[in-house]
Write a structure and sequence with these properties.
heterodimer, A: 406 residues, mainly alpha, Glutathione S-transferase Yfyf (Class Pi), Chain A, domain 2, 3 domains, two-stranded antiparallel ribbon, 15 helices, 5 strands, 61% helix, elongated, B: 213 residues, Aspartate Aminotransferase, domain 1, 2 domains, three-stranded antiparallel beta sheet
């Protein structure tokens, strides 16, 4: 009998090996078309129960057991199936235990031994199924449900996993050791198998499941928070488009100020260096060197390269006219450098009560900006504030200028 | 050289947000209750204390708040709140743009990277994103007069780094990390949502369902 079974099993496994390629194709694609297989091969695979046809006219699919074998061997993440059917396993235990007891009482030790072997197989398989289920859950948690794309899908996957955990836990609650101990009676081996062994398995599984449940809840919380944030910012924009005149209320002005708004203004100003501290001399010199390097260095090199023939002539008389406008423009630029903030040209003119009218002052500032050497100019940005001429296109009327450091 | 404690105090008084991404040492230091008490005691002399936001175990953000509120402090808080409210909309628009352009489910939060080059490529190739970027640039928070995507996006990222919403860990690479200040922004929106009963969440959800239908 067992020899016959062995032969049949071996031929089944060889069958699998011989047709490994179509089987893997069916596994990866979900199904395989009739035409992809030779008719002889197709018949054999169908007959051996490796492939089946779910409905007439449909493509061939892998049988669940073969698929489960592959999922298990490949540790495939897509494996979502968890067997939580404790009830039927318990009923099987009880039936087999009764068979064993009966055979034992009748003195049929060979039959009793066979029943015990069978029972052992079932109990071990039960433990194995449980730990497999838990491992599947962990692998899904560990890659954070990375096999589905969107956040909503992740949340749904998480909910599925949670329901599976609850089912597994509910199944474990069905196991009553009193009943098992009763059906084991006073037979030592049966007690060992049904009580001691099972208790150990279920204890560790229940513990691990509660950890899994905790992690799942934590992940779900995080997913929900991320989704909440997306909705928060999208909702904010939506609210603003629907209520363009909306202004945030004065939440920082009431008597009770929430901790969130309580943010102290920066209180530290940069400290100055002590010039008399010899320990800082090296640092100071380095700083000084940096200050110098800001000055144009290329000009000196160029002067050497393009030195013209030197002729001595009487220099023409010329007069350097000091212009108060130019000085004022320079002062405006210095103010921008000192404050480090954007400053409007007209605001500056008003604050210093400079005598020029707006237009000529703006011209002077524009001229001053354009007149800067290129390498100083790139440290500034000048913005022209104004509007397009209502009648003539291509004309832009400048009302004000704003200058800041880049 | 300053001790870690000194550094933490300096950063807090300088108005910085201390989060894991930006100042990991200081953040670890402040997470220990005894250290936080010490810092609190020191700041107490300046009428200040350490404030925390964030609920998760690894997402706390610390900053400096006032211990007692006088008129001057209230005025400061009002000003600051007004400033942050003005910055909210441009920042939120930018966050949505980054999220949409990257095709992600999650908006930027502390510690998440943004690759400027990838973002730029997507925005340059998509007219709708380009338009959105131009719109964001017109806010006074960013005040850019540039018209090219390259200039606009670099200016925005530079401004966000200056404002402390992003950091650039390696100056040779165009990879930026979001800081805890962004998380603060979400908290502010959530707070306004709660305080004014705007139901932003529900509005967004009904809009999404509307799109699906």
């Amino acid at each position: 009998m067992s020899d016959h079974l062995k032969q049949a099993g071996l031929s089944f496994l060889r069958q699998l090996a011989r047709h490994a390629e179509p089987i893997m194709e069916a596994y990866l694609a979900g199904s395989i078309a009739d035409q992809a297989l030779e008719s002889g091969v197709r018949e054999r695979l169908l007959k051996d129960g490796i492939l089946y046809r779910p409905e007439p006219g449909a493509d061939l699919h892998l049988r669940r057991v073969v698929r489960a074998l592959l999922e298990e061997a490949l540790r495939d993440d897509r494996n979502r199936r968890i067997d939580a059917n404790t009830g039927s396993a318990l009923a099987t235990f009880k039936t087999l235990a009764d068979h064993y007891k009966e055979a034992h009482h009748q003195g049929d030790y060979a039959a009793a031994e066979a029943y015990l072997g069978d029972l052992k197989e079932h109990v071990y398989a039960f433990g194995e199924t449980l730990s497999h289920g838990i491992r599947v859950l962990w692998s899904r948690i560990n890659n954070e449900f990375g096999y589905v794309g969107t956040l909503d899908a992740k949340i749904r996957e998480n909910e599925l996993a949670q329901s599976q955990v609850s089912e597994l836990l509910a199944g474990l609650e069905l196991v009553s050791f009193e009943v098992l101990a009763e059906s084991a009676g006073d037979l030592r081996e049966l007690r060992h198998l049904l009580v001691t062994n099972l208790q150990r398995t279920i204890g560790s599984c229940a513990q691990e499941l509660s950890i899994v449940q905790g992690r799942l809840l934590e992940l779900l919380g995080r997913f929900r928070e991320i989704r909440g944030r997306t909705r928060l910012i999208k909702g904010w924009l939506l609210h603003l488009t629907q209520h363009p005149e909306y202004q945030v209320g004065p939440h920082a002005a009431g008597s009770a100020i929430p901790a969130l708004v309580n943010r102290a203004a920066p209180a530290l100003a940069p400290a100055s260096l002590s010039l008399h501290d010899p320990t800082q001399e090296a640092v100071l010199l380095a700083l000084l060197a940096q200050v110098r390097s800001l000055h144009p260095r290329e000009s000196r090199v160029q002067a050497l390269a393009e030195a013209p023939a030197l002729t001595l002539t009487v220099p023409d008389d010329f007069e350097v006219r000091s212009s108060t406008t130019r000085a004022a423009v320079a002062a405006y630029f210095c103010e921008v450098i000192d404050s480090g903030e954007a400053l409007s040209a007209l605001d500056y003119r008003d604050s210093r009560s400079l005598p020029w009218d707006a237009e000529s002052w703006l011209y002077q500032v524009l001229g001053g900006y354009e007149g800067l050497p290129e390498e100083q100019k790139r440290h500034f940005e000048l913005e022209t504030i104004g509007e397009v001429h209502p009648l003539y296109s291509g004309n832009f009327i400048i009302r004000d200028l704003r200058l800041w450091l880049v | 050289m300053l001790s870690t404690k000194g550094q933490v105090i300096e950063r807090l008084l300088g108005g910085a947000f201390i989060c894991r991404t930006r100042y990991e040492d200081s953040w670890r230091f402040l997470r220990i209750p005894a250290n936080r008490e010490q810092v609190d005691a020191y700041l107490g002399q300046l009428n200040r204390l350490v404030v925390t936001i964030g609920t998760g175990p690894d997402t706390e953000v610390f900053f400096c708040g006032y211990r007692t509120l006088g008129d001057a402090e209230r005025k400061k808080l009002s000003e600051q709140f007004r400033d942050i409210c003005q910055a909210l909309t441009p920042l939120v628009e930018w966050l949505v743009l980054v999220q949409d352009a990257a095709g992600q489910d999650a908006p930027l939060t502390e510690g998440m990277p943004v690759r400027l080059n990838e973002l730029q490529t997507v925005i340059e190739d998509t007219p709708a994103f380009r338009e959105q970027l131009g719109h964001i640039c017109r806010y006074s928070l960013f005040k850019s007069t540039r018209v090219d995507v390259d200039g606009q996006i670099k200016l925005i990222f530079k401004r966000l780094c200056d404002l402390g919403y992003l950091i650039r860990p390696n100056t040779e690479k165009q990879i930026y990390l979001a800081t805890g200040k962004l998380d603060y922004l979400y908290e502010v929106i959530r707070f306004i949502d709660d305080a004014e009963g705007l139901n932003l969440d529900g509005q967004a959800e009904s809009a999404i369902q509307g799109q699906l239908l």
